[in-house]
Amino acid sequence: MTGESILIESASLRGRPGLHDITVDAGAITAIEDAGSTRQSADVVIDAGSGLVTESFCNAHLHLDKVFTLARLGDHALDFYQGEGMGQAMSAIDAAAEVKRSQDADQMLALVRRATAMAAFYGTTHIRAFADVDSKAGTRGVEVLCAVRDEFSGIVDLQVVAFPQDGIIKEPGTVELLHKSIDIGADVVGGIPWIEFTENAMQEHVRIAFDLAAEYGKDVSMLLDDAGDPGLRTLEMMAVEAISRGWHGRALAHHCRAMELYPMPYLERLVALLREARVSIVSDPHTGPLHARVAELLAAGVNVVLGQDDISDAYYAFGRNNMLEVAFLGAHLLWMMTRDGQETVYDMVTTRAAESMGVADHTLAVGNPAHLVILPVPDVTEALRFQPTPLAVVSHGALVDRGGMAAIGGIPGH
């Protein structure tokens, strides 16, 4: 995938005046020069036509094993998760579980391949992808996602999360399934402690997940406090555990929607914990009526990113794995529409998202891996306004076959 050299001509870059040429060779960015000054030849030449070239998109949160399953459930599932105050969020999880009883691996594989190809088509090269692990699904989702990870190697990097969607303490046998999932090839240990019945069980859920992470040397991703209950405190539990284990920067927190209801004195103490633990927060404000307090977190120096979360499943009706669309929605829902706000939102689906996932050197700089997207607009404002189809996508230093991705993804008009 990294054998060809690429020259991108006449590119607009964020924060740099004028136009530039970008040279890629052996999988890395080898030069960024003023437009027209590059004298070396390349196997592939792309005329950006003054279009914006940036780091590729990263999606830090996607339930990839559930994509395109809403039709099998009916709209009532959405009513649970998106109802006022999110008081029935746990009922949405129960509704979503019905698909796992009947879906086989081949059905899941076709849908997962479609969603992954969509990501590549729209310029996403890294995804943290969740697969349910429980008595109904077994390790089927992990097996399918690992197979797709291998198929799309060099195009889209999938970080497969072994995710105990229905709990650990209240779902006997899940610990053994999590061990098996990691042995199969899962990259990340998942968790959802808020779903347990008691505070002690929530704490035990967190402890078990970190035990697994320490045993296998894995990062942790947990869905936390994902309901309209200000008494939920599992984000604090995770941050404290990360500090005590020395897992600084290796624990990623998702949703944290109850935070919207926290009193300010508690929020301030929590933010101090998050900073010490270097916990990043993935917010998905478009998939539910509550969301983490993004403005306050960013102002306090906590890394916050955006994720797709869901594609046509029990929690969200739409989605096409296009992170520009997610950023556009986020700019509205989070009221981040100033120039600085727009730039931050763009970071939240590129560089900030990469940092949260442990993707190293994901910035447009000489010597860094070449994961790039070329857009037919000159700046971030126009990228958010139109969410245009990329002119080209470079992943791991190679040009992505977007026609092939469109065919697999079933993208209309391509």
Can you walk me through this structure?
The chain has about 425 residues and is α/β, with parallel strands linked by helices. It has 2 domains: about 5-50 and about 365-400, Roll (Urease, subunit C, domain 1), CATH 2.30.40.10; about 55-355, Alpha-Beta Barrel (TIM Barrel). Helices cover about 35% and strands about 20% of the residues. It has 14 helices and 16 strands. It has helices at about 75-80, 90-100, 105-120, 140-150, 175-185, 200-215, 235-245, 265-275, 295-300, 325-335, 340-345, 350-355, 380-385, 400-410; strands at about 5-15, 15-25, 30-35, 45, 50-55, 55-60, 125-130, 155-165, 190, 220-225, 250-255, 280-285, 305, 370-375, 390-395, 400. The chain has an 8-stranded parallel beta sheet, sandwiched between helices. A hairpin with a 2-residue loop joins β1 and β2 (about 15-25). It is globular, with a radius of gyration of 21 Å. The mean pLDDT is about 95.
Write the topology of this structure.
Elements: E1 6-13, E2 16-25, E3 28-34, E4 44-47, E5 52-55, E6 57-62, H1 76-82, H2 89-102, H3 105-121, E7 124-132, H4 140-151, E8 157-163, H5 174-184, E9 188-191, H6 199-216, E10 219-224, H7 234-245, E11 251-255, H8 264-277, E12 280-283, H9 294-299, E13 304-306, H10 323-333, H11 339-347, H12 351-357, E14 372-375, H13 380-386, E15 392-395, E16 398-399, H14 402-409
Parallel strand pairs: 1-4, 6-7, 7-8, 8-9, 9-10, 10-11, 11-12, 12-13
Antiparallel strand pairs: 1-2, 2-3, 5-14, 14-15, 15-16
Helix pairs in contact: 1-2, 3-4, 3-14, 6-7, 7-8, 10-11
